[in-house]
Amino acid sequence: MIKRYKIGRRMSQAVAHGGVLYLAGQVADDAKASLEDQTRQVLKKIDDLLAEAGSEKSKLISITVFLSNIADFDAMNRIYDAWVDQANPPTRACVEARLADPDLRVEMIAIAAL
Length: 114
What we know:
Blueprint (H helix, E strand, L loop, with lengths): L1 E6 L4 E6 L2 E8 L7 H19 L6 E8 L5 H11 L7 E6 L9 E8 L1
Parallel strand pairs: 4-5
Antiparallel strand pairs: 1-2, 2-3, 3-6, 4-6
């Protein structure tokens, strides 16, 4: 069975299938916020989607981080490191990429167990 969460006209924000939850790329609602605040907003969205689907960050399998400027790596990591479950860290990749809105500085995709 496939279950979709927060269905939009172009995509779902999360899709559950086979005991796995796949989250779409999450970005900040406030594109004018600082990198740190954008990171906090993205992580909250991930937390909220995980909770809605009946999962939590200790069940994260993988996270992919996209930064519009790789120079933001350390600043993003300060927020991420305070958020991530240190006993159950997921795999992670971080790359520099042009994001859909030039004011966005971070986007994250996540996969979690249910």
